[in-house]
Amino acid sequence: MLDITEAETLLPPIRKIALDAPPTVAMPSIDVDHGPRRHRTTTPGPERMTLEELTVAYSGKEAVKRVSLPIRQGEVLALIGPSGCGKTTLLRTLNRLTELTATASRSGRILLDGQDVDHLEITQLRRKVSMVFQQPNPFPMSIFDNVAYAIREQAMRRPGKKEIAPKVEDALRRAGLWDEVKDDLARPALRLSGGQQQRLCIARALAVRPEVMLMDEPCSALDPKSSAVIEELIVELKRDIAIVIVTHNLQQAHRVGDQVAFMYLGDLVEYGPTDDVFGAPRAQRTRDYVAGAFG
Ligand SMILES: Nc1ncnc2c1ncn2[C@@H]1O[C@H](COP(=O)(O)OP(=O)(O)OP(=O)(O)O)[C@@H](O)[C@H]1O
């Protein structure tokens, strides 16, 4: 069977559609091949987060405009759209990271399990809604301590190494890294490869048992093989947690996304099942974007 990265090289080039092409009246389905899915169907679980008319502005200029969306366990939501359309702003707002930007303001509601995130204690929110960044950012300490740190941070009392070790192992296993590191957990994390570092960051995020994982272009700094490993992992993890991923890579969004949200200039232009958004989008702008006409 073809490896996913090998298969990608065999795909036909993405067909270009002129931006000023007249709108298609009947909106026929799109014949662009976005490659195979890594999709493993799971029954959508409970709605973990709900966005209601979410608006985020920097110095009064809106970067995300009245976005309403559900984020469900058992699903990967892929946020796509051209540079500057508000994907990262939307993602970072979900665990209130945009509050660190002094010029940022927000309106609308974000619910986590039905509760307004503004009423949650911030560390509690960030434990339940964890984040994996574009650049792997392990701490300059051992592999073991990277994961143990996250567990100790959220524990009511300081657990000992004996108590923590099974939790570290569990998180490393879930992140698909255990077999590669189990014989040398004392090794400095910064000596791992980029792909291993990113899986360690995922293990660190998983160690606190989040309900939602936010991933901001988690593969963009990785080679294709490491990206494929992370994508497989994402598809595995969605059984237990809700995943939101920002990606510029349309084929990646197609491979891992169950739902896709296409944003343009802060607006949520289209949201729906991956096959619909990629195969038969409703809006002309979505059609142009997924067909590769701009980006
Ligand atoms: N800290 C900030 N201060 C002011 N404006 C910002 C800030 N961060 C983002 N913006 C602006 O908000 C808009 C949305 O940016 P954002 O980074 O969310 O988009 P994006 O879709 O994630 O882009 P990219 O794909 O390039 O990462 C852009 O116009 C951007 O210039």
Structure in words:
The chain has a 6-stranded mixed beta sheet with strand order 6-7-8-3-9-10, sandwiched between helices. A 4-stranded antiparallel beta sheet has the order 2-1-4-5, covered by helices on one side. It has a single domain (35-290), classed as Rossmann fold (3-Layer(aba) Sandwich), CATH 3.40.50. Helices cover 33% and strands 23% of the residues. It is α/β, with parallel strands linked by helices and 295 residues long. It starts with a helix and ends in a 5-residue tail after the last helix. Helix 7 (194-206) packs parallel to helix 8. Adenosine-5'-triphosphate binds next to helix 2.
* Strand order, sheet with most strands: 6-7-8-3-9-10
According to DSSP, the number of beta strands is: 10
Number of domains: 1
**Averaged pLDDT:** 87
Helix/sheet category: alpha/beta
CATH-derived topology: Rossmann fold
Helix content: 25-40%
Regions with little confidence, pLDDT below 50 for 5+ residues: 1-25
CATH superfamily: P-loop containing nucleotide triphosphate hydrolases
CATH class: Alpha Beta
The number of helical segments is 11
Distance between the termini: 32 Å
Alpha-carbon Rg, integer: 20 Å
Order of helices and strands: HEEEHEEHEHHHHEHEHEEHH
Biggest β-sheet description: 6 strands, mixed
What CATH architecture would you give?
Answer: 3-Layer(aba) Sandwich
Please state the overall shape, judged from the principal axes of the Cα atoms: globular
Domain ABC transporter: 49-290
Organism: Capillimicrobium parvum
Keywords: ATP-binding, Nucleotide-binding, Translocase, Transport
Protein name: Phosphate import ATP-binding protein PstB 3
